[in-house]
Amino acid sequence: MLFTDVVKSACGMGQSAMGPFYCSADQRVFIDLGFYNELKNRHNAPGDFAQAYVIAHEVGHHVQALKGTAQKVHAAKARLSKEEANALSVRLELQADCYAGIWAHHADRTRNLLETGDIEEALQASSAIGDDTLQRQAQGYVTPESFTHGSTVQRIKWFKTGLNNGDVASCDTFQTKAL
Predict the structure, then answer these.
(1) What are phi and psi of 119, to 5 degrees?
(2) Which residues face 157 on adjacent strands?
(3) What is the bridge-based pairing of β-strands 28-32 and 2-3?
């Protein structure tokens, strides 16, 4: 569902400050159109494929819900400290980045959709919204224990993992020690 500023979902009110999100309660992806302007102007990550990467990442959360991964993570987070819960959130988000890479892999293989520069657009978007980049911009320093989506390097790595392998099995961010 496309929105600007605010939207009501089964997960509560979504606001522009949240950016795009997936709501498992109504199984919908919510895309704030203002986020794309911010991605382009504030984060210097323009392009149609940067936007497609964001959508594919959110659809990746839907895949996680279908596979039961999201439910397991949310249940586990309730029993963990804030830092441990954040670390689990990072693994969930990086897996969604990997799933976005799988989508790009198959979009190119089956439909020849990728154009010159598309992967660079996705990587630039991934870099722009890494927790380290956002924290450095907002507060001038980085606190890795508060990450919820992963660092720039991690987000790029997992998108590329999905892109290069095109296989869901390659996206198991929960079993690897090296994120």
Answers:
(1) -60, -40
(2) none
(3) parallel
β-strand pairing of 28-32 with 12-15:
unpaired
Which tokens go with 107? 């979009």
Name the average pLDDT for the chain: 95
**To 5 degrees, how large is the angle CA 8–CA 151–CA 119?**
80
State how far the Cα of 68 lies from the Cα of 125, in Å rounded to an integer: 27
pTM score over 0.85: yes
**Residue (of 151, 172, 150, 149) closest to 161 by Cα position:** 172
Report the C-alpha gap between 3 and 9 in whole angstroms.
Answer: 11
How far is it, in rounded angstroms, from Cα 20 to Cα 60?
12
Structural tokens at position 118: 């598309």
Break the chain into its structural domains and give their ranges. Answer: 36-171
Both tokens of 142, joined, read 């980085």
| pLDDT score for 28 | 96
CA-wise closest residue to 25 among 8, 13, 10: 10
